[in-house]
Amino acid sequence: MTDAPASQFTPRVFSGIQPSGGLTLGNYLGALKRFSEMQDEGRECIYCMVDLHAITVWQDPDKLRHNTRELAAGFIASGVDPEKSILFNQSAVPEHAQLAWIFNTVARMGWMQRMTQWKDKAGKNAEKASLGLFAYPALMAADILVYHATHVPVGEDQKQHIELTRDVAAKFNHDYGVDFFPMTEPVIEGAATRVMSLRDGSKKMSKSDPSDASRINLTDDADTIAKKIRKAKTDPDALPSEAKGLEDRPEARNLVNIYAAFTNQSVDQVLAEVGGKQFGEFKPMLADLAVAKLSPISTEMARLLNDTTEIDRVLARGAAQAREITVPILKKTYEIVGLVGA
Ligand code: AQP
């Protein structure tokens, strides 16, 4: 098997977010905050609104258009600078879908059936789920590999999909006897790689959760953020002074993780400061911190959304830049596969 190490390829970061609703604190701490940090570390970064992924479950067309622009505003307001990173909308770069078709022929049905996200989202109603939802990971592999991306910053929930991306790359390389696609590495870093629901510490905070109280939206105002944190589910005990005291306390751990991620500290560092405090004291501290960090983002998002011409211009330019990379990689893929006229 040809396992081409990532180091044979130019280091390149790729990641995406679905415009399937408003952005959450989970998307911010698990993804967006890392995206801008990686860009500021001077890496080549490519970021994308994955609208083709979003439509694997029903999206109202007008809402999808709005959510895509709002997501673009969220990227920029969170620090992704279109002068430094390539920022665009997935459907504007057709090579993603074209490579996904090739990967549909490489990936195996059994691989897809094992995906936790497929099982969670299709649930007991798999017969009625879209074919696109089933094939979602093959499109995600194409999103990444159409750039020969070597690193993908994601939250913990996406780790399995990156492993599948590596399986697709390895099988393609093996079947065609080439070293063409890299073995991409997931980058899952920070204290909040899995931000949990504020109402249920066993569930991921998600933009499509029916309960708005379960999440903090990047567009929430200061009062709403404070209220949601005040009402967040917790237990009656005081905070421990070490991380191991948070075992079996998922809600408490979640709030401490969020605090740690906002302040770029480890959980132990946070607990050295707040250990012994009751939630009645800790929650207002967390609420103040969340408001201080998120308010500038929501203000900037509102400013950008006031006139979407600028966002549309940024996305059009990003798509053109992206295609400078994707067109030659897809052409070469077609040649390897034996497709004539590529
Ligand atoms: N709760 C979370 N904690 C940490 N990271 C998270 N991410 C999402 N939720 C959390 C990360 O955000 C990036 C973009 O995710 P996505 O929108 O493409 O899809 P998702 O993971 O399915 O996010 P949602 O909010 O749960 O969307 P819906 O509800 O539409 O399915 C990824 O890097 C993800 O890890």
From TrEMBL:
Residue interval(s) of motif 'KMSKS' region: 204-208
EC number of this enzyme: 6.1.1.2
UniProt record similarity statement: Belongs to the class-I aminoacyl-tRNA synthetase family.
Name of the coding gene: trpS
Organism, as annotated: Pseudosulfitobacter pseudonitzschiae
Record-given protein name: Tryptophan--tRNA ligase
Positions of short motif 'HIGH' region: 19-27
Binding site for ATP: Q18, P19, S20, G26, N27, G155, E156, D157, V195, K204, M205, S206, K207, S208
Oligomer and partners: Homodimer.
One term of GO molecular function: ATP binding
Annotated function: Catalyzes the attachment of tryptophan to tRNA(Trp).
Cell compartment(s), UniProt: Cytoplasm
